[in-house]
Amino acid sequence: MLSVDVGVKAERGNDVDNMGANFDSAFADFLSPMGAHRGRMVCASRMVGVIFRAAGFHELDAATLYGLLRLRVDVFVVEQQCAYPELDGRDAEPGTRHLWFERDRVPVAYLRILDFDGPTARIGRVATAKDARGLGLASQLMAAALAVVGDRPVVLHAQSDVVSLYERYGFRATGPEFVEDGIPHIPMRRDTAGR
Ligand SMILES: CC(C)(COP(=O)(O)OP(=O)(O)OC[C@H]1O[C@@H](n2cnc3c(N)ncnc32)[C@H](O)[C@@H]1OP(=O)(O)O)[C@@H](O)C(=O)NCCC(=O)NCCS
User: Residue 17: which domain range?
Assistant: First the structure.
């Protein structure tokens, strides 16, 4: 598992090699300009103690997995009042990577990358706890996800009122709005880094 204390220091877990060479080196790129990243943090001082983590499913201990799923359910099922299969069976796939920020060991922002090893990756379940919003956490997770995906195409289904967040990272709409689980979405794609 890779672990970074955003406010204090950056360090790597010994088991980061298990994530695969691409994952490791891409995070090196994401983390090496740590000063620059800290500079970009909108509210860096409020983020001291917020730790960035990334892991495959089998690196997650029970307490961490519980925390991640609780955050997702709190946001997508409870807050958004949507009864849908939040636990869709894809979290444990070998090609799934989980990225999140935690504070006092409690996850406060999360996303997952599906088909991490495939030709086209998919980002999903982007969520920030209510009391941690507006700090740039979802933005930082997007930057981290794109760093590990590299030049490969990435697709996602954006909730329609959050499209601008993804446009900022080079995603463009690829089709008309559609309703998924009762919520309007826009299909989006990012073809190569920087385009
Ligand atoms: C969308 C969400 C993940 C953003 O998390 P966050 O950590 O607060 O995001 P950031 O602080 O990085 O802000 C990113 C940008 O998105 C914008 N944004 C965030 N939530 C938004 C919303 N609901 N509607 C419109 N814009 C929004 C912010 O204004 C910010 O832009 P700014 O920098 O110009 O102010 C969070 O509001 C959330 O969990 N919402 C409920 C779940 C959801 O909609 N997830 C997205 C699924 S596609």
Answer: 2-150
